[in-house]
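re the bet — no i am not wrong, look at it urself. input seq straight from the record:
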Amino acid sequence: PNYKVILLIPSVYNRSHVKHLVNLLLVNLRFQAAFPLQEDVAATFGSGSPVSCVVDIGHEKTTVSCVEDAISHPSSRFTLQIGGSLIRDVFIQLSRFQGFPYNPDPSSLQDFVLLNQ
C-alpha cells in the first residue's frame, strides 16, 4: 500500500525529535511519504483564513503564535506556563473567596468532571 501521513508537530519543536519521528514513519512504519505540519499552521488552514493568531490553551501551558500565508513566524511564538489546570484552580479559589455555597473538591471525581465542563 502507498500510504502517506501528515505528522502534526507543536508550534515550538525540537528539530532532532521531528527528524527522528519522520525517520520512524518512513523506515519502520513504511509510509511512502511524511509531511510534518505545525499545529498552528494546521489550525489556520482549518479556519480557512490566510492570517491568524492561534492561542492553544493546554492543560499545563498556553502557546500563542501568529501565522501568515502558511508560515508560523518564530518571532511571534511564545509559551506561557499557565494552562487549563491553573485556570480551574483559580476558579476554585475565587468561588471559595466569594462564599459560593458549594465547595468543590478537585480530588473528587464528580467535582473534577464538574469543574472541567
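see?? The chain is about 40% helix and 25% strand. told u. also The longest strand covers residues 51-57. so pay up
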